[in-house]
Amino acid sequence: MSTHHDPSTDLTTQRGEDGTLPERFEDPGHPEHHDRQGDHDPKANKRAERQVVVLFTISILGTIGAIVAYALVPPGETVGSMRLSNLLLGLGLFLGLAGIGVAAVHWAKSLMNDHEKSEERHAIRSEDSVRVKAVEALREGAKDSAIGRRGVLKGAMVTSLALFPLSIAVPLVGNIGGDWDVSRSKRTIWKRGTRLVLDPTARPIKAADVTIGSAFHVIPEGLEELDHPLNEKAKAVVLMVRMDPRDLRSEQGEGWSYDGIVAFSKICTHVGCPVALYEQQTHHILCPCHQSTFDAADGAKVVFGPAKRPLPQLPITVDDEGYLVAQDGFSEPIGPSFWERLT
């Protein structure tokens, strides 16, 4: 809808004869108020109230749905089951919170007093008489909104607000225990003698098959036989590279690499993204999330980016058949630096 422009309201047309602006401008007052349909039509007012109740009810159902999804649709061990569980949980949380938000906005726009009011600026602490009037105005507003007579609406609002925190609290309480044991993230299934196998084919790797300049994504052998292979894989993934042994500038101890082959945790020490990019000319390992860069030739020390410590190194050697195996677990806890770390 187009509006008529009044040139007299422009600052440029209100200058005095000397070209200066006036010290004060006249108060234009409030714009013309337009009544809503519900202000005169009781049926329209009641219809708006029912709409708000429906929105709060959607929030209630969304919260209940999130709790049911958490209880009946666990993540499982497959990508499909994890996707379904996250989808249902997310949908329930969305409906639970969005229902409250949209209901509050619709309530304010359609049922509450929409007359604009203003008052002159005054000291922050008003006089007692003014404070009494303010309380009276609040009471008048509550009376004007007819909140006391809208029992169903109040019930729907209180129920939705009371239930929604459960959609967050139930999963949190349900996960207290093993999943909250941060020390579990410090331990992986790597141990002495565990073979390095390719991800995802699980084929063992012979040192003779690893050429200089190559990089391999590696997991521990026997991962698929565990009860929770995806959880363990997320902690144990490794990036293995081979370079000329003469390029190695430092190691964490004797025999940590084998003939120029080094292996480091793929979990970035910044926020846990996978560091999966290797540049063979510089021997740099790059995290694509926030560009933390680690020098594979120098113990995966940080050379750029927000990461604060090197990637943990996996000490490796070969077995009697020439296959690459771990000499032990990682040199230190894997993952972001802000995780609790005990010595």
Describe the model.
- This protein has helices at residues 37-40, 42-72, 79-110, 128-144, 151-174, 229-236, and strands at residues 196-198, 215-220, 238-242, 261-265, 277-279, 284-286, 293-295, 301-304, 316-318, 324-326.
- It has 343 residues and is of the alpha+beta class.
- It has 2 domains: 35-180, no CATH class; 184-326, Rieske Iron-sulfur Protein, CATH 2.102.10.
- The strands form 3 sheets. Strands 1-2-3-4 form a 4-stranded antiparallel β-sheet. Strands 5-6-7-8 form a 4-stranded antiparallel β-sheet, with no helix packed on it.
Strand content: 5-15%
Structural class: alpha+beta
Q: Radius of gyration over alpha carbons? A: 33 Å
The pLDDT mean sits at 82
Largest sheet: 4 strands, antiparallel
Main β-sheet, spatial strand arrangement: 1-2-3-4
| Helix-strand topology string | HHHHHEEHEEEEEEEE
Tell me the span between the first and last alpha carbons. 70 Å
* Count of domain modules: 2
The low-confidence parts are none
Contiguous helical run count: 6
Overall strand count: 10
Shape: elongated
Share of residues in helices = 25-40%
Layout of secondary structure:
Elements: H1 37-40, H2 42-72, H3 79-110, H4 128-144, H5 151-174, E1 196-198, E2 215-220, H6 229-236, E3 238-242, E4 261-265, E5 277-279, E6 284-286, E7 293-295, E8 301-304, E9 316-318, E10 324-326
Antiparallel strand pairs: 1-2, 2-3, 3-4, 5-6, 6-7, 7-8, 9-10
